[in-house]
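This section describes the prediction task in plain terms. A model, or a person checking by hand, is given the sequence of a single protein chain and must write out its three-dimensional structure as a string of tokens. No templates, partner chains or ligands are provided. The sample shown here is typical of the held-out split.
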Amino acid sequence: MTWYPLEPVDSGFFDAAPVRHRFVVDVPVPPAELWKSLSSDASVSAWGQSVKAVTWTSPRPFGVGTTRDVTLALGAMTVRERFIRWDEGSGYAFCAVASNRPGLRRFAEDYVIEASGGGARLLWTVALEPAGALSRATPALTPLVRLVFGRLVADGKRYFARR
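The expected answer:
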């Protein structure tokens, strides 16, 4: 597989990226169960069809520097991720270090888990900067990115409603 490297990010990227989406996901399970799912072997791929596979490429225990490959269902895109924040039980953040498709300069996601009513709330931020020809299409890409990641939000809500 050919890998296209991406530029690294820091936490400031979540507020400065040209394309940012913030999702609030309330689920009817305790925060510990939401964390268990996010840090499991399957992670978000267990939630539904949006993510085809998650392959952790670092041994447990996970933490800052942990790596994994995530394959999205749409477009057969695989992204190699490196964790830049790991707060055991309450959230993590990662940036993509490479992708098997060109078109991204920088990409990162941030997950924060909070208690909410009788369940958990996931505060999820997706931040990206397109590269090359895609950078000129940023205004058109923004709703598409929201739609794709919004599907994962819907998958997660259905997944936890069944538990």
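For orientation: The chain has a mean pLDDT of 93.
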